[in-house]
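Reviewers of the previous submission asked for a worked example of the structure-prediction workflow described in the proposal, so we include one complete record here. The input consisted solely of the amino acid sequence. No template or homolog information was supplied to the procedure at any stage.
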Amino acid sequence: MATGSRTVRPRSSVWLSERKAPKRKGDQQPVGLDHVKIVAATMRLLDAEGLSGFSMRRLAAELGVTAMSVYWYVETKDHLLELALDAAMGEIALPMEAVGPVEGQEHSPAEPRDWREQLRRLAAEYRQVMVRHSWVPALLGEYLNIGPNAVVFSNAALAVMRNSGLPDDKITSALSLVYQFVYGF
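From that input alone, the workflow returned the following structure tokens.
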């Protein structure tokens, strides 16, 4: 897409790209790093400093490695931000009925069975994630948000809405309304 004299390319997604590890002669993969540690440190930095204060150099310093070491695990800063966004979505507690039985967990009597209450809880959980991680709303507008945790959340919300009695062709619109209300609130 062209705007003025510059061409804007669509943003790539960590969920749609094939990871190609750097292959440089003599380089060794950094010891002690993994996706979990990198994403956790990213979220801590984003929580503390926001999007404007986040950089790959700052992240590397937090992890005690060079900035290039982080690129063994993620191709770009954008991909890392997508991973952090999905990790934040994974913090949302989901209703058991919506996600199905989880091995080793029994249904809690406190778990709401009414779809309205389940939807309220999902909306409240969604909002809590956005409040706890003030950088999440900005990323929701920038990235596809199609990681595994986001998909589980979306599927749970769809399952709750299917119990509402709305026709299937209205469910997505109803959920969009709820999400936009929470996002705007």
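Residues 29-74 form a domain with the Arc Repressor Mutant, subunit A fold (CATH 1.10.10.60). We consider this example representative of the routine output the project will generate in years two and three.
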